[in-house]
Each structure stands twice: as C-alpha cells, then as structure tokens.
Design brief:
By secondary structure, the chain is of the alpha/beta class. 42% of the residues lie in helices and 16% in strands. It has 11 helices and 10 strands.
Length: 288
C-alpha cells in the first residue's frame, strides 16, 4: 500500500461516478493499485463495504449542506436531524471524517445572514461529532455564495463553533485559484486539518495577462475544470509544493489521509484516463 514519503500519510482517492458506480469493482481496483482509502458519499453501507474489504474511508459526505444554511428554520431542523443520523450510522460503520462545502440555500442572501444560519445549523452538529470522536472537514470550494473558503471565514467559523470537531478539508487547488497562498493558509490552520485532497492548480501566465482575473472572457474558449487563467490538475502538474505541505502536516501531528480528487481535463472523461490520473497522482504523492 502507498503512503507519502514525508509523514507516511495513506494515499487514496475520492470516488467518482461513471466506471466507479460499482463499488465492489472500485475496491478491487483500489487494492490492486496500492491505494489505502476511498472517500465516499452518505451511505453507511458503502463505508462498511470499504472497511470490511480492508481499506479505510478517508471521508464520508455529510448530507443536506444547503439545508443547514437556510433561513427556513423547519428546513434547517430537518437537515440537522438527517445529518445527525448519517454521522451516527457512518461512525458505527467506521468513518470518522465528514466532508462538506458551505453552500447556502440562498446564495443571493447577505453573506452575513448566511453565515449566521451556517453557525446555527452546523453548531447543532458539534455535540454529535464530539460524542463520536468524529470531525467535520470543510472544503473551501468557492461555489455560488460559498462560505469558509478564505482565512477570514474559516477563522470566524471555527471561533463560532468553539469545537475541535470543526476542521479543514485542506485542498490547495481552491486556494490557488483564489490567490490565497496555500502554505501561508496551512501555517495558520494546520492544527485544524482533518482531511487532505490531493489536487493541484496550474496558473497560466499568458491567459492571466490576456484575460486578467476579474472579468469573464469575451472571445477566449473556456477550460474544462478551470477558469480564465487557471485549471485544476493532478498533483505534480500544478504549483503546490507538496513536500512542504506534508512536512508541515507531519510536524503538526496530522493523522489522516491524502485523497486524490481527480479534476483534470488531461485525464477525466474516460475510464482509462481517469485510472491513469489516479495512478500518476499516487506515484507523485508517494515520492513527496
């Protein structure tokens, strides 16, 4: 099985759709190709199947993200109940980290209002996470109205939660596209990292000159898994200094996994290409 050279963190991947719809076949392929964990959705039965097969679960998705960030109190109460049940079921099956992105029900609402709803919704989950020794791992994908993407909102969220169960899903690719230094971010939040995504970003200087960073392109074609001047890549094809990342995590005592999240136009789209992307990513990360 493969681990990173620095820190000895187990390397796995986030499950995709398509050829990965058959979980049994995915598990067999993962084991044959030396992966240690798989990130899954919200089904406790999937968690159990992976662990019974001798692999680990890097993270399990938390359900009802937007329902936890809404002005509708009844909807929020229902989302809390669903998420609480999922946490309990998945912990019983062997999962410990629960993945989410802070996407509000109404992206057009004032960000300060949505932040308040987020604090209420996710705050209600902290006692259950603490009781089970589990953790929420928040990824900073800057989707529509998303919160907890930048140091400003991560910091405020952790202060509001007041719980060690609230953690970061560290994914440098999103920080890079936003212009946030991923190593500076890690130096501040390293003690909060509960899970790591192995995904990178290439910054394309010529397109940045041509298109800037503030406006959509008028004539230039878009880039799959990317924006005007950037695109997501597999680790090693972007600008993240992974050896430094792992050294910082090792020093901080990080005890989780590194799961490859494959979003790279050079590999996504075919079964053969995606399998190659996963394997090349694993090989690169294992040498860091």
């Amino acid at each position: 099985m493969s681990v990173t050279r620095t820190g000895g963190f187990g390397i796995g991947f986030r499950r995709l759709g398509g050829w990965q719809s058959d979980l049994g076949a995915v598990i067999a392929w993962a084991k044959a190709n030396e992966f240690e964990c798989i990130d899954v959705g919200v089904e406790a039965s999937d968690v159990k199947q992976i662990i019974d097969a001798g692999l680990a679960v890097g993270s399990a998705d938390l359900p009802g993200w937007s329902g936890l960030i809404t002005a509708d109190k009844a909807k929020r109460t229902a989302a809390v109940a669903e998420a609480t049940a999922t946490i309990s079921d998945c912990v019983a099956a062997g999962a410990k980290s629960f993945f989410c992105v802070m996407l509000p029900d109404d992206p057009s609402a004032a960000r300060s209002d949505n932040f308040g709803y987020m604090v209420e919704g996710f705050g209600a989950l902290m006692p259950t996470l603490e009781q089970h020794g589990a953790r929420l791992v928040v990824e900073g994908w800057p989707g529509p109205g998303a919160l907890c993407c930048t140091p400003e909102t991560y910091r405020a969220f952790f202060e509001a939660m007041g719980s060690d169960a609230a953690c970061v899903n560290y994914d440098p690719s999103h920080l890079l596209r936003m212009g946030v230094d991923p190593l500076m971010f890690l130096s501040e939040f390293v003690d909060r990292v509960g899970h790591v995504h192995g995904k990178d970003t290439e910054i394309m200087a010529e397109r940045q000159y041509e298109l800037g960073t503030e406006q959509p392109a008028t004539f230039a074609e878009g880039i799959a898994f990317g924006g005007g001047h950037w695109r997501y890549t597999i680790p090693g094809h972007g600008v993240t200094r992974w050896c430094e990342v792992f050294a910082m995590l090792e020093t901080a005592g990080y005890d989780g996994y590194v799961s490859i999240e494959l979003e790279d136009a050079n590999f996504n789209g075919t079964e053969a290409g995606e399998k190659q992307g996963f394997v090349l990513s694993r090989q690169y990360l294992a040498g860091c």
